[in-house]
Write a sequence for this structure.
């Protein structure tokens, strides 16, 4: 949802344009403390990793609770087990990281986690062994914990979290303002398609018109008309369409040419030739 940042900038620009300076200050403060990170998945995952690395259990729980109330709790019920699994996997990454930290703080953070999370986790069988973690020597070699101390498993948890957030954010209903860019792109694409279709229709119509013109007014008729017009003794009305004249009328020399002029005079009363004769007279 990278377009969210663009919308934020547009909103801020509008507020400045309207002179809402106090609103701009409040808007900037809200952006600085934005827990959603502009719905940027990488930033959200980085924030989770930060809480884990500094052993901030309260920060991790509060941040997850925020995401849970914002999006996770609104997902369909059959998705909830997968969400809970990722949540508990993050807690295990937290414990492993706390245990691996140097100094005496290590045991304190592990004990703090187990103490605070006891009411929530004690009834779950998968957490039974974890309450023994502070008392296990070299847990990274213990069959119950060795998997969780591997970088591969820890990275897989973060990738799963990343994929979950990406999928949810893509499916979230968005306000109208954030969809203006996609709507504009859709309108532009539809306009381009309409223009292309119009061009195809126009070209097809021109091609058919050209074919029809060639059938109605062959060039052969025009060239033969030019030959015979030189032999005509009297003036002829200017006619630009001879499709109604049989080609046999053009054969036979001067006699046929004079016969052609008589034929034109006879056809002068027809609707078609009448219009063309009228136009010819107007041109003369």
């Amino acid at each position: 949802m990278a377009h969210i940042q663009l919308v934020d900038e547009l909103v801020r620009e509008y507020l400045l344009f309207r002179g809402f300076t106090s609103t701009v200050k409040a808007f900037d403060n809200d952006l600085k403390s934005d827990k959603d990170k502009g719905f940027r998945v990488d930033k959200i995952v980085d924030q989770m990793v930060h809480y884990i690395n500094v052993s901030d259990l309260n920060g991790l729980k509060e941040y997850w609770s925020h995401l849970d109330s914002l999006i996770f709790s609104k997902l369909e019920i059959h998705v909830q087990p997968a969400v809970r699994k990722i949540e508990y996997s993050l807690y295990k990454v937290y414990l492993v990281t706390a245990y691996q930290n140097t100094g005496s703080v290590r045991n304190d953070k592990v004990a703090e986690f187990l103490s605070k999370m006891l009411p929530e986790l004690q009834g779950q069988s998968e957490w039974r062994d974890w309450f023994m973690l502070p008392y296990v020597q070299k847990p990274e070699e213990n069959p119950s914990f060795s998997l969780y101390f591997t970088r591969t498993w820890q990275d897989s948890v973060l990738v799963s979290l990343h994929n979950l957030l990406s999928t949810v954010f893509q499916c979230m209903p968005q306000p109208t303002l954030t969809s203006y860019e996609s709507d504009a792109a859709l309108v532009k694409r539809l306009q381009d398609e309409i223009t292309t279709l119009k061009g195809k229709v126009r070209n097809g119509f021109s091609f058919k018109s050209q074919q029809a013109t060639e059938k109605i007014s062959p060039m052969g008729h025009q060239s033969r008309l030019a030959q015979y017009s030189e032999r005509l003794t009297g003036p002829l009305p200017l006619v630009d369409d001879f499709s109604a004249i049989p080609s046999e009328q053009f054969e036979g020399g001067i006699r046929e040419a004079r016969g052609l002029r008589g034929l034109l005079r006879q056809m002068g009363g027809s609707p078609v030739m009448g219009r063309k004769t009228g136009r010819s007279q107007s041109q003369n």
Remarks:
- Confidence is low (pLDDT under 50) at residues 216-221, 231-254, 266-284.
